Amino acid sequence: MSDQFDVVVIGAGPGGYVAAIRAAQLGLKTACVDDMQGKDGKPTLGGTCLNVGCIPSKALLDSSRQFHNLQHLFGDHGISTSDAAIDVPTMVARKDRIVKQLTGGIAQLFKANKVTPFAGRGKLLGAGKVEVSFHDGATEVIQARHVILATGSRPIEIPKVPFDGQYIVDNIGALDFDAVPKRLGVIGAGVIGLELGSVWRRLGSEVTVLEALPDFLSAADTDVARAAQREFKKQGLDIRLGAKVTSAQVGDGAVLVRFSDGQGDHEMTVDRLLVAVGRRAWTGGLLADEAGVKLTERGLIEVDDHCRTSAENVWAVGDCVRGPMLAHKASEEGIAVAERIAGKPGHVNLDTVPWVIYTEPEIAWVGQTEQQLKAAGVNYRSGSFPFAATGRALAMAEPAGMVKILADAETDRILGVHMV
């Protein structure tokens, strides 16, 4: 007889594992199914974020920032740094230790909260039945009153620029270079491209970022995007806007990239090429025909404002549904769904989801941008303050950037906060 649960969560990323823990805390018998394996080939929890996304990238960002400061700022403090060097394998090993510590922490939280983990791929068969396919080929069907789909997303691959895992890589490959590439090409000036481009630039790479859109960080407030672009240029990031990549060819230990922009057709040769043009919802093999779960034209799982799908007692959260693909948004949705299943008023406000890009300087915003308010005809007030005018920023040798606040002209209700 198959196992019976109140809740089965498919996916153990920030949306899934948080939903599972919260459901268990509310007294629901809960299981979580995930097939991800770590670098050691063993099952691991935490999804993309903890294993090959948010956490490892932050570890490398901090290591590269320390090295950059050692080379360029410590001398002003009277600290000698003449023999500074970077050991990339040691840096990557530190990153891996941090990942292992945090993913192991989730396993302990599962144990403490009595969440049952299944290390396999989950498939919704319909009528509260989930099939788990294990790595050894075995399968098991478990049953639940409610199923939460939290399968996340995968990197988008450009047809003419296929990943090879060595020279042309996605975010996973760019986290595990064994040496600093002399020349790094990055396709996409979004969060992933800017963060990982910054890591390797600080460590000595010549970094060229190709962005197909004509505007830099078009989702951010224009003033913030302009200020950030100015700082990245000072740091040596070569950002080319309106650049559309037409092909990439590997040969002789390098990558020949062809692209076009307003000035014509171009070629450049790089040692490694990072493709970071966004992510798409991952639902491959997730849904049987009988599951009754509808997808949108973009391949997202269709949900209502409460994360309910078209199938009864089936919910979906995180990157596989509408809204920004952000870990904290997924976690908030996971908590809300668990609470709704338990009869509590779980709530998520997608209008107040913060965005952060962990470059140097960091970029963050929440709420609406000035261009959005103008387009909507909102009567607003704007105020900004530069960090260059604060003593703390000068003492830290970090005078770049500002804070900008947008508020309703009549009520003073804050409509947006933007920082760089």
Gross CATH architecture of the largest domain: 3-Layer(bba) Sandwich
Mean pLDDT: 97
Structural shape? globular
> What would you report as the Rg, rounded to the nearest angstrom?
23 Å
Distance between the termini: 57 Å
- Unreliable runs, pLDDT <50, ≥5 residues? none
CATH superfamily of the largest domain: FAD/NAD(P)-binding domain
Fraction of residues in H or I helices:
25-40%
Domain count: 3
**Widest β-sheet, arrangement of strands:** 1-2-3-4-5
Count of helical segments? Answer: 10
Instruction: Report the count of strand segments.
Output: 21
Residue share in β-strands: 25-35%
Structural class: alpha/beta
Q: Give the biggest beta sheet.
A: 5 strands, mixed, barrel
CATH top level label of the largest domain:
Alpha Beta
- What is the CATH T-level topology of the largest domain? FAD/NAD(P)-binding domain
Give a quick rundown of the structure.
It contains 10 helices and 21 strands. The protein has helices spanning 16-25, 47-52, 54-72, 88-113, 171-174, 191-202, 222-234, 327-341, 370-376, 391-395, and strands at 4-10, 30-34, 115-126, 129-134, 139-149, 153-155, 168-169, 183-187, 206-211, 238-241, 244-251, 254-261, 264-270, 272-275, 279-281, 314-316, 355-357, 363-367, 380-386, 402-408, 414-419.
